[in-house]
Amino acid sequence: MKATGAATAATTVGLTAQGVAADEHTVGAMLNDMSIAEKAGQMIQPVVNSLDPEADSTFQDVSEIGDLISEVAAGSLLSGGSLPPTTDPQELVEKVDALQEYMIDNSPHGIPFFYGVDAVHGACYLDGATVFPNRLNMGATRDPETIERAERHTAAVLEATSCHETFAPTIELQRDPRWGRFFEGISEDPKVLSDISAARTRALESNDRVTSTVKHFAGYEVPHNGNDRAAANVSMRDLRETLLPPFEVAIAEGPGMVMVNSGSVNGIPAHASRWLLTDVLREEYDFDGVVISDWNDLFRMIDRHQYFPNTEDGRRSAVEAAIEAGLDMVMLGGGGLTPPEFIAHVQTLVSNGDLSEKRIDQSVRRILQLKRSLGLFENPYADSSNLTSLVGNDESMEVATDLARESMVLLKNDPVTEGGPSALPLSGTENVLVTGPGIDPETGIENRILMQYGGWTLGWQGIEGGSLTDGGPRPTGTTMVAELENALGRGQLTHVPTNFDRSQWWSIPEDSTNENGEYGFTDEQRSAVESAAPDADIAVVVLGEGPHNEGFGDRDTLRLPETQREILRTVVENTSDDTTIVGVEYAG
Question: What is the 3-state secondary structure (H, E, C) of 62-98?
Fold first, then answer.
């Protein structure tokens, strides 16, 4: 086998190299020529570390990674948690395309893979990209047209970086703010959620080289205890009238993929629910694309839901149940079910007659048809000639700014003194004190941007996993302090950032009440606030929570951390009666 550089010219791959057009006939020919193991390989979407825990996830050695994915004939690959092999846009497309070429040259039928990333609020997987406001903010805008412009930009960047699938849009009603994924929701109103989800899906699907992934079907957003991936106990009326209709509206826009709810609905894991995945999704909503699991969710039916025993037979039964329910592709992370194990289970199930080869062919046909619709058989490589002009460009930043402005919710703006002017906007001549969480006590690096951008931004649990480095990757944008400095003319800004130690997400138990960070208020910081507060016309106090995602963001209480309450009390006690105090909360 040989490692080669990425091809840049258009080419034809797979059986189409013999001159047969990439149409239904070719897909059928591919299926007829594939073994059960090769078909099962098309049904997996692994991260490279699920194939080898020691594999270099930065893709430095194309042949090493290429051999791993070629051996199992993987139908797709993904970068987990908004963190691809590199955050450099040009390096990313070169690495993915080089791996694609290696795969085509060295796998049994030269079938290209498609690559999935979490571009869930802009191209949030790239250094210097425009990151649009999170989904919570999108919903607050009530502006599907501008959101559609944002997603068209995201799709263009995906295409230029050889990333074919984004795990978006998320279609969940906002019901319980204790839930760690609440900030990924759009609205508690099914109509608003439907309109915005349709716009997002339509925009992503407008790009012929990109597929959206409508998720998480269905009932994910109503865990009975507010904890991520907990059981949903929900009435049929609630499902039919509020939870399912937004999916139906989005699916009518033609998404290429649908991702399944990781939880259970009324006692049955969604991945094992034929009613959800076939009766409703296929037969009622006429969805004809690829149904994919979420991260390790076949094994989750065993270790989380305890629906199957953790034995070889139990794992095989989980595979059988999911495929029979309607699953086409399984996302495999490290741990749990491995790609070779999944393939072996499919082989055994078909050999024993527990699964028909016809059912396997049905899933693989959908996967191959998706690749055909993305143009991967004609040209599996990206055209990155416009990449530099796309990433973080002025037009996308204008859209992001518009969405951010439209999404702001001003809870209170009363005059400070009776008959006086409202607290906001600033005139530009004030003396302003800004304080609150914003500096890493270990490194001294200002890190409030972690709270500003949240999870799914250059990392699953936030930028660089919450531990910022000098010169590390950052989204294109500005900070509140920088904007205040620009806005103040003859005024003066005093900034007293307090300690924010972003705990590493892997050290926080998923059932913890940790606010995704430790908040400190040292004696020195207290003295600085007490000194600056009396002369401040405006005191801006930053409040909120650290970046988080999924179970790590679950909360038992919505109360602010006590340290932040102490910072606020210190400001109130040391400012004059006519000082305006502005609270800015970064939370979801």
Answer: HHHHHHHHHHHCCCEEECHHHCCCCCCHHHHHHHHHH
The full set of domain ranges for the chain reads 20-385, 410-586
Q: Is the dihedral of CA 165, 169, 171, 176 positive or negative?
A: positive
Q: How far apart are CA 210 and CA 224, in angstroms?
A: 35
Listed range (12-21, 361-370, 555-564) with the worst mean pLDDT: 12-21
CA distances from 54 to 45, 79, 80, 106, 117 (A): 18, 16, 16, 22, 21
Instruction: List, for residues 334-368, the tens digit of each pLDDT value.
Output: 888 999 999 999 999 999 999 999 999 999 999 99
Cβ(42)–Cβ(73) under 8 Å? yes
Quote the mean pLDDT of the chain.
92
* C-beta contacts of 34-39 below 8 A and 24+ residues apart: 34/108, 34/109, 34/364, 35/108, 36/346, 36/347, 36/350, 36/351, 36/357, 36/360, 37/73, 37/343, 37/346, 37/347, 38/73, 38/108, 38/109, 39/346, 39/360, 39/361, 39/364
Nearest-angstrom CA–CA distance, 438 and 306: 42
Measured CA to CA, the distance from residue 388 to residue 157 in angstroms comes to 10
Exposure of 298 by Cβ count < 10 A (0-12 exposed, 13-18 middle, 19+ buried)? buried
Q: Compute the distance between CA of residue 398 and CA of residue 394 in angstroms, rounded to an integer.
A: 6
pLDDT, tens digit, 9 for 90 and up, residues 431-483: 999 999 999 998 999 999 999 999 999 999 899 988 899 999 999 988 999 99
Quote the tokens at residue 249: 């509206």
What pLDDT, in 10s, does the model give residues 226-256?
999 999 999 999 999 999 999 999 999 999 9
User: CA–CA distance from 191 to each of 198, 204, 270, 430 (Å)?
Assistant: 11, 20, 24, 43
Residues 6+ apart with CB under 8 A from 466: 450, 459, 502, 503, 504, 505, 516, 517, 546, 547
Q: Indicate the SS3 state at residue 443.
A: coil
Residue 19 has pLDDT above 60, yes or no: no
CATH superfamily for 410-586 is Glycoside hydrolase family 3 C-terminal domain (3.40.50.1700)
Q: Are 345 and 319 in contact (CB under 8 A)?
A: yes
Query: DSSP label at 261?
Result: P
Is residue 399 within 8 A of residue 150, CB to CB? The reply is yes
Listed in sequence order, the residues at least 6 apart from 289 whose beta carbon sits closer than 8 Å to its beta carbon are 211, 255, 256, 257, 258, 366, 370
Which residue shows structure tokens 């990209």?
A: 129
| d(C-alpha 456, C-alpha 138), whole Å | 15
Q: State the CATH architecture for 20-385.
A: Alpha-Beta Barrel (3.20)
Both tokens of 368, joined, read 């191959």
Q: How far apart are CA 126 and CA 89, in angstroms?
A: 6
The total of other beta-carbon atoms located within 10 Å of residue 102's CB is 24
Q: Would you state the structure tokens that stand for residue 223, as one six-digit string?
A: 């865990």
* CA-only gyration radius of the chain, Å: 25
Q: What is the DSSP string of 244-255?
A: SHHHHHHHTT--
Residue 465: name the closest of 80, 129, 56, 46 by CA.
80
